[in-house]
Amino acid sequence: MNSRRDFLQKVSLGIGVTALAGLPASAAAPSAPVVRAEKQLRVAIMGLGGYANIVAEAMQKCTMATLVGVVSGTPSKVDTWKKKYNIPDKNTYNYETVSEIKNNPDIDIVYVTTPNSLHHKHVLQIAATGKHVICEKPVADNAKQTREMIAACEKAGVKFYIGYRLHFEPHTRELIRMRESGELGKIMHVNNYMGFKSGDPTQWRLKKALAGGGAMMDVGVYALNGARYCTGEEPIWVTAQETKTDPIKFKEVDETITFQLGFPSGVIANCGTTYNFNNFERLYVIGEKGFVELSPAFGYGPIKGRTNAGPMNMPAHIPHQTLQMDGLADIILNNKPDPHITGHEGLKDMIVVDAVYESIRKGGQKIFINKA
Ligand code: NDP
User: Fold this and answer.
1) Catalytic residue at 222?
2) Which N-terminal residues, if any, form the signal peptide (predicted)?
């Protein structure tokens, strides 16, 4: 069990990565040659922007997932991608022709990486083609849209995943393993934050109609999703506060939000997010017997961590998107149980996002979460 592929399979299966600590350094080395498995998950990417490029590059190192198609509104990008990734003409679509993917037996799954507020429409379109879907975070503008996306995928009999890449990341998996095994003892507190200073004031991320919201939607979901995997519980109440230090730039969307999540056990997660300053990225979970601190915790990595026992020694960094796409390929091709990145998991986050915004609208009032 000392190949990189075995490592990927263990991560995707959720097997504790500390068990892999004895592997030779080369076992998980990013420079290891790619040996492709016989069965491949054939992926098309929809929306060829910044993140699509990162996913496509990372997939070059996948053993079980291959980039085979694109959906784009920009013909020049399609030409570039065709040449760069050897994509045949017959696997290229635009937003008007995308429904024709249903007749293409060479595409298994479409990865939606368009702006947030288009996810709902695009996931519904892909579900109607009968192809599986991966959708980037945030799933949609709100829980209502997310429920509609889940219903459309269930009706079409296709799988629906959210691009929560950290669920395949070794430090994050180790933290979850430590919490589940009881090594941390009873969880007592969580303190997570994620934000950055946003640049170009004309970008879609600052426009409500395309972004759905601001920092909370974009990166606050990492702090929130993290609070759920730090505790293994679902929040029952939310309070939130917003401040805008630059009301002109952030006229349409939220700039900086702090929010608190109350869990059934009594644990409170204190979280924050921003679009207006850097160096705001940390996960800290404290139990009666120990703690885990990840910092950086949510970006592309390398993630760094320490526990009460000292620095976390994880295998060499592999791009999260490589781990995610190989992990999903393994699950889909080998009929393995779905991980915690399904549409239903995304819905749990969107219910809390809705409650965060409701609390802010109501002056920080405590919002009790209705699970229905
Ligand atoms: P970009 O703006 O870089 O790319 C979005 C692409 O969507 C565009 O290039 C375009 O591609 C397509 N598109 C279709 N309609 C529109 C429209 N009306 N306006 C703008 N673009 C449009 O965004 P990102 O790649 O940074 O983000 C895309 C999604 O990925 C977001 O939901 C974001 O939250 C998520 N993301 C996730 C990350 C993660 O770590 N999981 C990291 C970064 C982003 P084309 O020209 O081909 O049609």
Assistant:
1) yes
2) 1-27
